[in-house]
Structure formats: C-alpha cells, structure tokens
Amino acid sequence: MSSENVERALESDAPLSAAVHQRDVAHAAAEERSWREAAVVGRTVTINRPRQEVYAFWRDFRNLARFLENIESVEPRDDGRSRWRVAAPGGRTVEWDSVVTADQPGALIAWESADGADIRNTGTVEFRDAPPGRGTEVTATIVYDPPGGDLGKLVAKLFQKEPKVQTRRDLRRFKQLMETGEISTSAAPDPEHAGAAPRGGAQAQG
Amino acid sequence: MRALTWHGKHDVRVETVPDPQIVNPRDAIIRVTSTAICGSDLHLYDSYIPTMHKGDILGHEFMGEVVDVGPGSTLQKGQRVVVPFVIACGKCFFCEKQQYSACDNSNPAEKADMSEVLYGYPMSGIFGYSHLTGGYAGGQAEYVRVPYSDVGPIVVPDGLEDDRVLFLSDILPTGWMAAENCDIEPGDTVAVWGCGPVGLFTIQSALLMGAHRVIAIDHYPRRLELARSMGAEVINYHDVKVREALYEMTGGIGPDAVVDAVGLESHGFTIDNMIDAVKTTTKLGTDRAHVLREAILACRKGGRVSIPGVYGGFGDKIPIGALMEKGLQIKTGQTHVQRYLRPLLEMIGEGKVDTTFLISHRLPLEDAPEGYKMFKTQQNEVTKVVLKPH
Ligand SMILES: NC(=O)c1ccc[n+]([C@@H]2O[C@H](COP(=O)([O-])OP(=O)(O)OC[C@H]3O[C@@H](n4cnc5c(N)ncnc54)[C@H](O)[C@@H]3O)[C@@H](O)[C@H]2O)c1
Ligand SMILES: [Zn+2]
Ligand SMILES: [Zn+2]
Fold first, then answer.
1. pTM of structure
2. What pLDDT digit, counting tens, does each position of B310-344 carry?
3. Which domains are present in chain B?
4. Could A135 and B21 be called an inter-chain contact, meaning their C-beta atoms sit closer than 8 Å?
5. Cβ separation of B21 and A189 shorter than 8 Å?
6. Fold assignment, A39-182
7. A58, A109 contact by CB (below 8 A)
8. d(CA A21, CA A14)
9. Residue B193, ligand 1, Cβ within 6 A
C-alpha cells in the first residue's frame, strides 16, 4: 500500500521530498536498501554559479565540513573512499567510511557508507542548470538508517530532532559560500574585547 | 565600547559591550559619527517585534568613518560612509536584480528559518532589528561591524556634512521608492497617509517626480505644517473625514495613487502572536491595517497603491473586493536601499533634495534612552532624533 502512494507521487514532476506521504517515502527507501528503517531528508537550492564550479566544490569532499554543520571532517583516501567524522554531543565522535557510487561530472554525485558503518547512510546530490542566467539548481537527498541503542539516541539528538531544518540550513550555508565566498554570521564578538580601545588592524582568517 | 541595548518594553540602556570585530573577509568596522532613531525602532521599543533578545544593540540608520577592513572589502580606512539598513550580499539572484531587501544570503542560515516559515522565503538581514532579520548588532553604538562592505556602504565626500547624507541609510530612499512605486503620470494626485519621516520624504519625492498634487494626511499639526511647507495640501484626520475630503478635493475621482506611510502602527502594532504563528501557522495575530483599508477604498479606479509602511503578519478585512473590482496595482517592500544611494547622493549634492529640515533633536549617544522616550511620546515636536556617539 505504501509503494502505491510513492508511485503516485512519482507521477508528478516534483521530487519525492515534496510527497504528501513522507512515511511511505521513507519506507520505500528502506525496502530498496533492505534496511530495517530509513529516514529521508532533502532540499533544493539555486546557486548563482556555473554548474561545473558548484559540482567541483562539492566533489572535493574536504569542502563539506565548511558548510555541513554536523560534519567535523571528511578526508578522501587513496582507495577512492573517504573518512567521515561527525562531532556528537558529549564530546564523542562517530566515524565511518564512504564510497562514491556514482559520479557524473557536472551532474550528479552519489555515495554510501561502507559496510560496518554505525550509521548507514547514502547521499545523492544533483546539479541541473537553472533557467538561463540563474546558475545551478542543487538537490541534495540524504537517506540514513537510524540506529538503535545508545548510539541511536545520540544520533537522534544530532540528526533527527529537526533533520529538515538541518538540511535547509546546511544548503543555505553552501549557497552563501559559493555565491559570496563567506558564511553569513551575526554572532556577537568575543567578550574579552569589552571596552577595548579602538581597533588596530585585526585581520579576518579568510 | 558604548552602545544602546534593548532590554524589554520601554527599557533601552546605554551599556559597555564588546567591540565589534572583523569576522568575514568582506567586513568593515565603522566608527559611528551619526545615527538616527527610526519609526521602525519604536516597534522594538514598544516590544511588539518578536525575537528580540536582552542586550541586542539597536539602530539601522547610521554613518561614520571606516576604521578597519577585511581583505575582501573595497573600503579604505578613513573614508566616510553611509550604510544601508538592508544587508545585502551583492552576488545572489536578487541582489543582481537590485532587489536587495530580498537578498538570499545575508540572513544567517540558523536565523532564517522563522522568516522562511512566515513569508515562504527568508528575507535579507537588517541591522539592529531582531533575530527574525538576522540578529545583527545595530549602529546606535560607537562602532559597528558592516558585512559585505564592498557592496553596501556609499562613500560620501567630506564637503557633505552628516545631517545632509545620514538619511540615505533608510528613510530618504524609502520615501523615494514609495513615490516611485506610485508610477506617477502628469496630472496625478498622490495621497500620502502619515507625515512621519517616511511620509515627508515621499511627498518630496513625488513632487520631484512630477506629481501635480500631493495630499498629506496626519493629525500632528507640526508634521502637517512640514508637509505643507514642502508643497503638499493637508488633511487632519482628527477634524475631517478622510475619504470624503479626498473625494471632494479630487473632483469625485479619487487620488491616482495612494501611499500608506503609516504601517501597522496606525492603531498600534499587533503581531504579538508571531512566534506562535511560526509554530502553528494557523493561529495568527493580525496587523492593524486601518490606513491600508482607507487608502484602498479612497484610491481611484485603476489607480496605484504604494505601501512603504511596515506590516509583519496578517491583515484582517483587507478590502480585496475593492482592490480587484477597481483594478488597483499594489507595490510594496522593504526598501532596496542600495539601488537608490548613488542617484540620491547626487541630488543631495545638487541641492535638489534636502534632508536637514527633518532633524528636530540632536543628542549624545548616552542620552539615547531619553531620545526614544521623546520620539515616542512627543511626536508633534519630535520629528527626528539624531544621536552622536562621537
Ligand atoms: N519600507 C521600508 O523599508 C521602511 C523603512 C523605514 C520605515 N518604514 C515604515 O514606515 C512607517 C513610517 O515610518 P516613520 O519613521 O515615518 O514613522 P512615524 O511613527 O514617525 O510616523 C508615522 C506617522 O503616521 C501617522 N498616523 C498614524 N495613524 C494615522 C492615520 N490613521 N492616518 C494618517 N496618519 C496616521 C502618525 O501620526 C505619524 O506621524 C513605519 O511603519 C515604518 O516602520 C518602512
Ligand atoms: Zn529606519
Ligand atoms: Zn544577495
């Protein structure tokens, strides 16, 4: 019954993230991967930069930590795999290896966690030309298997509280970085500077 | 440094706070020489705007001297600049279309959710104006951090003193855009509700754009007098029925364009449910839209409605029938300040536009709380307060 809803949603031209029956979408994603359970989050953003440039920035996985809030680092390795490191609450870190499963330059990158990952996950990011003069449309879709036990609670805290909010903030940061070269912030200055004398040449870290 | 901070309803204080720092490459730090209190600041003062935090630094109308720049800034230390209240990146689709207040990037990622839920898409950042618009520290302070300083601030020549250029930061372009949104044609009569700074600059702009007549509506004698001195005819809404007066004064046709330069303060600001509104998009407070209703009804058939006055939530009983049946056009929005800076600075230089008549009070920054109180409670005498942090 669930797959019927998903199939019907696919008859529209919108991505599955817009489907009414999100639980069925998640169920179908789990079935497809023979997982116990799956959570699906996705979001599209238009970036006012050429498609190749946006693709290339994402394809260098080291860049992901600059705008994906929960990712501490992604280190590519020689064997084509990459090591993902996520900061978890309580000073813990969770790590896993990822394998690129599809790579169409300028169009699509897909990856999945290697066997044995604590949090099984797959990601796809698609790049399409926006209408002329408007840059690139980027759609990111992450599917993961929420683990049980202690780790599950940890991960829930990390991802599941508001996974949609997390994705949309991450993609906003990606867009900011690509378009403006910076990540916008209004964070208050360091309190140590209270009452300090007017500045002398503080430099940005770049 | 010293700065004016918000602590709650009618509670603003000058406090010592950390100096701003360069954070991003395109940032600049400005030493503020003049900063004004705006009608919009009164919404914060009256505590009706949600997402204010205790200690937030207010102020979105300011100018000063560049004292520090990041490597990506095009400004130079020592330059005098006026800073637009709208923060805009200059690189996104909207900035390229010169729709700066719709900038996609200046509202920080973690702050933009509320704006996105309320309006469908997040709006730009604004200095000193709650966390809904980005949580940026404002300019009613000795120093302020200005992001994207390569595209926002305009450098002003030393010959033009602060009083002549300060209002480029907001109300002068706001009045100009409000008049531009009237699409004025020869022979047109423009009716302007509200003779605060925004309304007065709208009057000045509409006449410069060739309006045949401007009719100004308010109830403060001093403000109406200023409107008249600029060339408007006036209606005091305490003494005269506005719609009937407009009908008679326009030969039964009605004004060709109407301007709501009052906003949701016409009877007090009531989007107190805004935070809840975001949680449950169903139980919404409504903005008091009295002036907007009156303006739509008074407007001639096929006329134009320009709304510079600020609304934040939902309006009740907007005469949608009158709007549709009469075939009116509406134009509105937070001002795309950056778009107007250069032409307006030129007009100031040529003496075509005067801004100094508006300033009724100048105070040191330390007296800012008193300035807010005066601007709030003595609107007849107090038309604009300029603070001097240095
Ligand atoms: N669109 C923008 O970017 C932008 C920029 C700046 C200010 N604003 C908004 O413009 C509005 C006006 O700003 P201001 O600084 O001139 O404010 P202000 O408070 O100084 O002036 C408002 C005036 O409206 C008058 N008024 C109130 N009720 C009225 C009624 N029923 N009929 C006629 N007049 C009435 C008041 O007497 C007052 O003189 C505010 O809502 C402000 O937030 C918008
Ligand atoms: Zn203002
Ligand atoms: Zn922008």
1. 0.92
2. 888 878 888 999 999 999 999 999 999 999 999 99
3. 2-170+335-388 (3.90.180.10), 172-332 (3.40.50.720)
4. no
5. yes
6. Alpha-D-Glucose-1,6-Bisphosphate; Chain A, domain 4 (3.30.530)
7. yes
8. 13
9. yes
